[in-house]
## 1
Amino acid sequence: MTTYSAPVEDMMFLFEHLKDNKHYNEIEKYKEVNSELVKDILDEAAKINQDLILPLAKVGDENPCVYENGVVRTPPGYKDVYSKYIQDGWTSLSCDPKYGGQGMPKTVSTFFEEMLSSASLSFKLYSELSIGAYNCILHHGSDEIKNKFLPKIVEGKWSGTMCLTEPQCGTDLGLIKTKAVKDENGLYKISGQKIFITSGDHDLTDNIIHLVLARTPDAPKGTRGISLFLVPKFWVDDNGSVGPRNGVNTVSIESKMGIKGSPTCVLSFENASGFMIGPENKGLNSMFTMMNLERIVVGIQGLGISETAYQTALSYSKERKQGKSNDNSNGETDLIIKHADIRRSLMNMKSIIEGERSLAFWMSQQVDVSLNHSSSEVKKNASGIVALLTPVIKSFFTDMGMEITNEAIQIFGGYGFTKDQGIEQLFRDNRITPIYEGTNSVQAIDLVFRKITEDETFKNLISNIEEEIDQCSKNEKLSKHLNSINDFKKRLIEFTNWINPKGSTPKNDISASCNDYLKFLGYFCLSFVWLKTLRKSYENYDQNTEFYDDKINTGNYYFEKIIPRAEAHYKSAVVGSKYTMDAKFN
Ligand SMILES: Cc1cc2nc3c(=O)[nH]c(=O)nc-3n(C[C@H](O)[C@H](O)[C@H](O)COP(=O)(O)OP(=O)(O)OC[C@H]3O[C@@H](n4cnc5c(N)ncnc54)[C@H](O)[C@@H]3O)c2cc1C
């Protein structure tokens, strides 16, 4: 089995020392969320994830979900753990107390998301889409709908799904065919087929609330004619009790390379009754509330899986003996962790993972501000930053997840390729994260064609970084890194001007370089948060010298050994697309 011990110390370091967003600290309702409370939550979260959920990862992989006689059954043990999971209130952590939630900020719930991803992505997905559905209904549903559906979703007794994909329609949502026809009661009858629906059917909850994209009869073509509908598996009476089965049937479930404990369903909607959510033909806007937050969470999945891969590889490298290291003095075989190349591999993982955790924490403060601050201007600025960096978190973290799980397999040698150690499962489980919620390539296109064109937001990001650089200028120990981040920043601006679609670069050159730009910005953002982390590590050094020595060494590694990767992305991008587009592919 894999090794996982929740990184509570690192999370508490972030919560105590990097909660420095002035506007976040102004949010009245979060002032009571203090270190003591957060430490208690994280300690409890660590227990359930390490002791109960982690073992389910292997169980789900070896005993995938099954579909028999029209019913989807989850792997052995999932039901019992899910029931304890909701009894302990984990589905309600970040939800509004008005609907039974605990009202915790994203700064806290993001740590929980990471732990859960580290323990078992398959198990996590059952509640993850429920929280997505909760967010969508909260922002776009009427009071009646909210009161009827949200308390049960928050409690975890009902779960949620997101139904976009159809056989002919993946990335291009303008191709949706599912129909919605209004009936005499003001409800809608939904008909069509949806595929690849995560948790589309299962036996963990009493009801499943599907959020479905469909077209009304006279809707305009393309994405401007899509509306959003809430379609429960079982109809819900006015008094909130579960009634007869609605017209939603499971046709089959997919056989997959990973996340086998999560059912990916083909659903057939046959005159199923549903409520319209939000205005007609504006369904995509409403669905994006769910998808945008969900994309950040998918990035966190990549981070969580990376952490387990790193810990498992680290632990193996302290047990496995092969060869003699350069420093060998006794002639005995050494542990592989003594070899410089294994250490390089572990440090690549560690410096990227800790940087990502720090960036996710910085981003979660921005999300909290964007949702909760009292000033609409402050909210708008934070929303801009969140929109700009969402594709970066989603794609960079999940691509790094592929790199890290791959390196972890390599550390295990042949035992990484065989199934016994569980490390290859992490690679397979992570492989979906660069694909769903919008593929990473499409995220990169979104970043370049829609996000960096917002000049004010981009300037806002740069000014956040310049403020940090200013704060670090008094620390001589950081002077080398300051030079490096200043050069990096200049290059980022140069790269952004080159790739900005408002400029004169040919469109194919831009499109062929979006992935390089996203990687460049990812490495840059990590250098920003590593700078912050190093500053705080020096400031607090005497409080915990062992912890901060390790942080400083890891941060130095990031600056010296990882940042040079970014330049290769820049150089490859600005060559343009001639050879790419001239290829004949005969
Ligand atoms: C396990 C699993 C769970 C899923 N869960 C859900 C779910 O809960 N709900 C749901 O609705 N869907 C779900 N999906 C569907 C998932 O979101 C889609 O698979 C994904 O969005 C990609 O769509 P597609 O598979 O049709 O690929 P396509 O859209 O056909 O893309 C194929 C390739 O072309 C590229 N491409 C497409 N368009 C462009 C473009 N304009 N420019 C450049 N490149 C492009 C893509 O990046 C990709 O590499 C799930 C899928 C899986 C496998």
## 2
Amino acid sequence: MKSATHESVIVAITGASGAAYALRLIQRLANAGIFQHILLSDAARVVLKQEADLSLPEMASLTPALAEYLNVSGDLMRCYTLDDWFSPAASGSAGIKKMVVIPCSMGTLARIASGASDNLIERAADVMLKERRQLILVPRETPLSSIHLENMLKLSRMGTDIIPAMPGFYHRPETLDDIINFLVDRVLDHLDFANPEAQKWGE
Ligand SMILES: Cc1cc2nc3c(=O)[nH]c(=O)nc-3n(C[C@H](O)[C@H](O)[C@H](O)COP(=O)(O)O)c2cc1C
């Protein structure tokens, strides 16, 4: 475990398929000493149970439970309820510069694109957009409708990084871990935190 830095990031998990991407990203950021504000939609809990067999407890013990499951320090993360309007993620004045929604459901994507701000994930993303800070979305759906594509285009034109959960195969993945790491490395590259574990093309 490396020592904590002053950097922090909001990691939001929504109910699209690909819970393993979120778990790996949280693990890698914790190992890199980055503080994480973690937001979890109700649908994300359903998908975590379905895809990772992970039943998370209620909010009071969520942070330690997640840290224990991922075998990382709970000192570097904090989970919030989606109506915690007093949390740092809810306001631009808290100064958090980066946010990732991973995986990002088409529902959350649409609500971010419309500026709904109806829960803390949507509000935090809205803050990133209005403050012109970094917002990364990792959408997962197939096929994509014109509504999905238009929402992505709208957000992309506002400076959002759209990093679809689309694995590449040119690095010749042999395990599911290789495929998960491939995407998480791309997200970490864009977050621009030090990522010494990343596999780089051409090395
Ligand atoms: C197992 C499972 C897999 C799902 N996969 C996707 C998906 O890949 N993409 C998507 O947009 N929605 C997916 N959904 C549907 C979303 O969970 C649903 O639209 C939900 O309302 C999204 O809520 P949220 O955006 O608040 O997380 C999935 C649901 C379940 C239970």
